[in-house]
Amino acid sequence: MTIFSVYIVNRAGGLIYQMDHHQPKTEVEKTFSFPLELQLKIVDERVVVAFGQRDGIKVGHTILAVNGDAVHGRKLEDGRDILEEIADSENYPIAIKFGRPKLSTNERIMLASMFHSLYAIGSQLSPEQKSSGIQLLETDGFKLHCFQTLSGIKLIVLADPKQTGIEVVLRRIYELYSDYALKNPFYSIDMPIRCELFDKNLHGLLDPYERTGFYSTSM
Amino acid sequence: MTIYNMYIFDRNGTCLFYQEWQRNKSSGMPQEEEFKLMYGLIFSIKSFVSRMSPVDFKDGFTNFNTNFYKLHFFEPPSGLKFVLNTSLNVESLRESLQYTYNSIYVEYVVKNPLCSLNAPIKSELFKEKLDTYIRGLPAF
Known about the structure:
A: 4 helices; endoplasmic reticulum (chain A); golgi apparatus (chain A); transport (chain A); TRAPPC (chain A)
C-alpha cells in the first residue's frame, strides 16, 4: 500500500512540481558468462534489454552498472562503450546490474505535458456530454489519479492499485498547494514550486502511507 | 449501466470495426478523424504508462475513467486493440473483451477466408454475433 509519486501540472501543461515518494526496488545484479543470453539494444542513448527475460531481468530494463561501475548513457564512467565491453569474451565473467530506467527531469516534463493532452483528448472523445478528462487511469502495476482544480491546475498522484482514499489525498494536496505555495509571496503562479514548507507538509501528508497504508483525517 | 460504443483497431492503427449502441455526444469531427484520434490516444497512453510506471507490469493499461464514462482496453499479443466505452458503474470488462477476441473475432473473421485481415470488417455474421453478445452483457 503505497503512493509512488506526485506531479503538479499547470494550465499550459508545464510540470511545476514533482516528487517521488516511494520508489520500489527493481534492481537485479547477476554475473554472466560468455556469451550473454540477453539481447540488448540502444534506445534513447541507453542500453535496454530487448529480448530474453530471466531471473527478474525484464524486457525494458536498462543496464545500471557493469562490474560495480555506474553507467552513463551507453558508456561506462571511464568512457568505454558498454556494448563493446559485453561483446568481448576477455571481459567475462561479468557482473551486470539491471533495473527500470530512472526518469530524467526532461522526460518527466515531457510525460507531464503528454498527460495534459491525453486528458483533453479523453474529454473530446467522450460519448457523453460534458465529460471531464481522464481522472483515473488503471494498469496492473499502478493507478494514476488526476484531479483538475477549477483554476485548471492538475494534481496527479501515482499509487499502488490497491491503495484507497486517494481522492482525499488529492484534495489535501490542493489545500497544501493553496496554503504553502500560493500564499508564498516569492512564488509566481504557473512557475515551478520551490517552497520548503510545501515540501515538508506534503511529506507529512504522504508519510503515513509508507508506514501503515492507512490515512487518518485528523492530520 | 450503459455500453456506448466499441472500436477495434489492428496493429497498424486501421479501424477494423466501429459500432455505437448509444451515444449522446459526437466528437464533432469526421469519423475517419475520430478513429485516428482514438488510436492515437490509446497508443500514447500505452507509451506514457510504460515509461511512467514505477514497477514492472504485465498487461499494462487496462481502463480509464472520466467523470462520465469508462474506457476499457484489451490488447491480445497480436497487437489488435479492443476499445469499449461504458458508463462508470461497470466493472472490468476484460474477460468480455477477451471473449470477443477468442470466440467472435477469431471464429468469424480469422476463420473466414473471405475476410481480409487488415481491412475494415465487412462480414455481416461477425457484426451480428458481436451485437448479440454485447446486447446480452449484464452491463448493457
